[in-house]
Amino acid sequence: MGKRNITFLILLCLGYVLFSGWLWGEEGGFRLEEREVRKVYGEVFPVVAKFYQSRRKPFPIRLISSEELAKILRDEFKFHRIYDGPQKEANIFQAVALAQKVLFAKFAIKRGEILVIPQNIYQAAMKLKMPLRSKKFLWFLLIHELCHGFDEARYGYVKRLFRITSPEAYQAFNAVIEGHAEYITEKVARKLSLEKEFIAWHRWYTSSFKTGNELSDYLRKMYVAHFSFAYTQGFLFFKKLEKLKIKDFERRVFTHPPKTPKHILEPELYVGLRALDRSRVRDVGKLSKLLEKELRWKIVRSLSVNEVVLRAALSLLPSKRVEPAFQGLIQTNIIRYIAGAEQITVALVQFENTKSPQLFLQLEEALSDAKDKKFRRWIQSSQKRWQSLPNVGKCFTTIKKFKSDSVYNVYHVSFAYENYLLEINVVGGNHSFQSLRDLARRCFQILAKAPLRSLSQGSLPGGGRKGR
Ligand SMILES: [Zn+2]
Questions:
Q1: How far is the CA of 4 from the centre of ligand 1 (A)?
Q2: Which of 93, 163, 252, 327 has its CA 20 to 30 A from that of 101?
Q3: Residue ranges per domain, the chain?
Q4: Near ion ligand 1, which residues have CB within 5 Å?
Q5: Using CA atoms, how far apart are residues 253 and 237, in angstroms rounded to an integer?
Q6: How far is the CA of 89 from the centre of ligand 1 (A)?
Q7: Using one digit for the tens of pLDDT, what is the confidence trace for 113-158?
Q8: How many angstroms separate the alpha carbon of residue 198 from the centre of ligand 1?
Q9: Partners of residue 348 on adjacent β-strands
Q10: What CATH number was assigned to the domain covering residues 284-449?
Q11: Where are the alpha helices (DSSP H) in 244-378?
């Protein structure tokens, strides 16, 4: 366990972690021949083309190594504005390092070709009980990538993705892209009488596996919840829109995409059938800059964390206890900073109501206790304290020492105020309960200066009226 994984643990999140060998492990005896891939491609292409009513000739297809994939990804990620900022290089490096290991196939935009990465498939096949029987997964992989190709030809979504700068909008649009590919793949699978196999495949690659190492299993669970959001929730999003009988919804979703993961989870909000009270939502972009300026921290990255990941983080607690705290949750943003030797993470969880943040704060203590118990192999010492915080009430603080390859101090302070919960985690440095409370007080003062942000309700023009 490296320092990054520890950082990962104490936060409620995710994807910036460099996942090393323990994610996939060694490759084994499973083989995938090029002619096999080409044969399946020859079979599925006409079926998918017919679905899209397209007469184009097949996209070229190639089998490549994970190293070559990394090169292609590096080239492509340069154009994603979401990685912009002083840490652009490092952000891209981390994103590539992760994707390079987990992608089985890809539609590469530059040359409009389908890429298959046998190396990654072998490794997953060996370690993760991939449903290999009859290798039907190959059908679904290729159909999925073909959907990206045809969607790009039809909607030109890539340029739109490149331009997005807000983490929430990026996560939502990614769910549109992946969700739609899965949505069509299921339909094609049904045509090919492979529906059962498709469901087994979809379930397999969107679920997490136990390894017996409690800490890495817990991290993996959050990681999978984050990574698979686009595939599972995006897929369900399209199925719900179909059920709601929104006219021409596929085109409309690509041209007027949902702006937050919340829209993906609740399409009724997206199409304007229900409204969310956003009148008290704080502008996270402005807040992150204020914190940077006033505390002299250096911003590394800003992320949006969806509810599915939050639930995975709280999975150490009984769900009966957790669920009431999710009532009226609007959005969660995570901002990462560095300050000297300290890695600081600020999480802002915003709600429609004032009761849920208080419930969430109670969960912080329960979660801390649960971690002490479950991860005692890695926790050398742990102290907690409730302290009074002027104008707020109280804050919850913990000081823990983690041991992995070396020993890390991990500090936490959180408080609930009005309709939000603020959580600050620090790895490294030297804090006391007193200094953590001071930090919370300063953050509270800064947060009070962050303006509210006016957000539109649904993002689908014309609302959810049926039959338009
Ligand atoms: Zn995809």
A1: 27
A2: 163
A3: 23-210+228-270, 284-449
A4: 178, 181
A5: 10
A6: 24
A7: 999 998 888 777 766 666 555 568 889 999 999 999 999 999 999 9
A8: 15
A9: 333, 422
A10: 3.40.1000
A11: 249-255, 261-265, 267-270, 284-295, 307-313, 319-322, 355-374
Query: How many whole angstroms separate alpha carbon 447 and alpha carbon 441?
Result: 10
What is the 141 CA–ligand 1 centroid distance (Å)? 9
391: which 2 tokens? 């104008």
Order across the sheet with 113-116: list the strands: 61-63, 113-116, 105-108
Enumerate the β-bridge partners of residue 346: 335, 424
CA of 202 to the centre of ligand 1 (A): 12
CA distance 128 to 144: 21
Cα 157 from Cα 286, distance rounded (Å) = 28
* DSSP classification of residue 22: T
Tokens of 268: 């009724």
Cα 130 to ligand 1 centroid, rounded to whole Å: 18
**359: CB partners within 8 A, 6+ apart:** 324, 325
* pLDDT cut 70: percent of the chain above it: 88
> 447 CA to middle of ligand 1, Å?
38
Whether the Cβ atoms of residue 232 and residue 177 lie closer than 8 Å to each other: no
How far away, in angstroms, is 62 Cα from ligand 1 center? 16
Task: Please tell me the distance between residue 107's alpha carbon and the centre of ligand 1 in angstroms.
Answer: 8
pLDDT digits 0-9 by tens, 46-74? 999 999 999 999 999 999 999 999 999 99
Measured CA to CA in angstroms, residue 228 lies from 105, 206, 269, 309 at distances of 15, 5, 22, 10
